[in-house]
Amino acid sequence: MAMVAAALFTLFSLLPPPTSAAAAVAAPCEFSFLDGNKLYSYTLSSPIRNFPHGVLSEDGFYKVAVNQTTLWFQLCDGMVFNHDPPTCADCWDCGGPTRCGMECNALLANNIGGYHVCTAIGLGSKIDVEVIDKKNPHIGVIVKMSSSSPKYNCSLAVSVLCNVNRVQAPHTLEKLGACNYATEIKHPSGCATIVSVHGRGWGWFGTLITIILCLFAAYLLAGIAYRFFLGIRGIDVCFSCLC
């Protein structure tokens, strides 16, 4: 029995600790969920065919202008302006006048009295991804970003619609509240990767139990064989193994 205990101690020492909740959190712009025996995964910032940067705009930003409002944003990363930078009367919450748009993920400019007044509506530390419709996961996902300041609590929701054939830049902008906006793009990154899952099993705990039972069975068989070799016969062979 001492040999079994030693084997179990060695097994426990080799097992990795259970995954913590913090380690299980998905990286930004990644989302997955299980539906029956299918695992749907979206990795928006991962390279795909013809798009080495995933859903990220290679220009460094997406831009859409509707009426007197202009929106700049980048998905899954901060904005970079090598051309056509925002010009705002107030950009202190996203880089200041000399680096306007460089320190946030989404920036909105409203024309007020002939001046463009900017407000950061998305920060990189506040990005969430969720599927648009779990009953129809092929539609795509929504990327939500937000920004809080003493004046406003703002947000932007970007629907990334699945389109395997082409990319369509944003051309609409919807205002949903005092400082909440929504737009959409079409992109192959919005299409899910589907993996079939056949039985979820017990994981490492089930494997541990199986190994323990196998070791115990091997111990019993070895004991029975040894006592049979010593000349012990009948039911006493089994009972003496447990002593």
Automatic annotation (TrEMBL):
Residues 1-21 form the signal peptide. GO terms for cellular component: Golgi membrane. The chain crosses the membrane at residues 202-226. This is Uncharacterized protein. Keywords: Membrane, Signal, Transmembrane, Transmembrane helix. Pfam families: ATG27. It is a single-pass membrane protein. InterPro entries: Autophagy-rel_prot_27. It is found in: Membrane.
